[in-house]
Design a protein that fits this description.
- It is a single chain.
- This protein is an all-alpha fold.
- The protein has a single domain, classed as Orthogonal Bundle (Farnesyl Diphosphate Synthase).
- About 70% of the residues lie in helices and about 0% in strands.
- The longest helix has 29 residues.
Length: about 300
């Protein structure tokens, strides 16, 4: 173990392993789904809280898989510029981390059984897909992050699956407002990944990862960030134009300066460890946006 980490308690090591700064990506789409479900007039509180618990467990389990697999594939080395990873630094052994994966995914499956009981087979399919995708993001014979599918995975699962799944299990219906809102949440979650990929471009290239900055260059990733911003901030106006929500959803635009500020810093050439704070800010931006959009939806008749 690297000397700087020997003084950390076991709890502190596991706290680093679960990557708490990434957890807004699990919380934000679920809260957005809650607001849509409440507006249908049919809201199951127990199901809503269970959906949030499952989202957090799947996110943590995915982070743990990413930690141990990236180390084994050589993506996380001493040259890493991101926050310390517990397997690479020796804070936890691969066996311990895999044990954490089994526990978190197992608890998610156990909690999901309740949603299957109340919502039926669609909840089962969504849950199985989420668990499989969480593991397959970096592990298995066809790891998504190593084959250029990381962005698509994040967009689909943190957008449509998370928001749509939450609405379905809590309201047992999926109104049209769900899909536009889900696209916005998915787009801003992709931007968290964009910041991460720009920071890790050199180590990802060395490890054989395939993503937009590795294949097309940093500038392409910067424009990807801008495109995702455009999708997210077009969403409230699309909802209004389609008659799916009232002008209250424009509240979400209050989060725009934060998103643009991150984009400007990316375009100024921040790199390596300089981008670590931006990663947390991108997650905060997602949560702030979703809370504001949720408030606008709740205020809509």
């Amino acid at each position: 173990m690297e000397p700087e980490f020997t003084s950390l308690s076991l709890f502190q090591r596991w706290w680093l392993a679960i990557r708490p700064k990434t957890l807004p990506a699990a919380i934000a789409p679920v809260v957005l789904g809650w607001s849509i479900a409440i507006n249908t007039g049919s809201f199951n509180l127990a199901a809503a809280l269970t959906a949030l618990l499952i989202a957090l467990l799947v996110q943590i389990g995915t982070n743990l898989v990413n930690d141990v697999v990236d180390f084994s594939r050589g993506a996380d080395t001493a040259a890493r510029t991101g926050p310390a990873r517990v397997t690479q630094t020796g804070m936890l052994s691969p066996r311990q981390v895999w044990g954490g994966v089994i526990v978190t995914f197992g608890l998610a499956a156990l909690a999901g059984s309740y949603l299957v009981l109340i919502a039926g087979w669609p909840a089962l399919l969504i849950g199985l897909a989420a668990l499989l995708a969480g593991a397959a993001y970096t592990a298995g014979p066809f790891p998504l992050a190593y084959h250029g599918l990381g962005d698509l995975f994040v967009f689909l699962f943190f957008g449509f699956a998370a928001v749509g799944g939450t609405v379905y299990v809590t309201a047992e219906s999926i109104p049209p407002v769900t899909w536009v809102s889900a696209a916005a949440a998915g787009a801003l979650t992709v931007n968290i990944l964009v910041v991460n990929n720009i920071r890790d471009i050199e180590t990802d290239r060395a490890a054989g990862r395939c993503n937009i900055p590795v294949v097309f260059g940093r500038q392409a990733a910067e424009w990807e960030y801008g495109l995702m911003l455009a999708i997210a901030y077009a969403a409230p106006f699309i909802l209004i134009c389609l008659g799916l929500a009232s002008p209250w959803v424009v509240l979400s635009v209050l989060a725009l300066p934060q998103g643009v500020g991150i984009w400007q810093k990316l375009r100024r050439g921040l790199a390596g460890r300089e981008l670590n704070p931006m990663l947390g800010k991108a997650a905060q931006h997602l949560l702030f946006y979703c809370l504001l959009l949720a408030a606008g939806i709740l205020l809509s008749p």
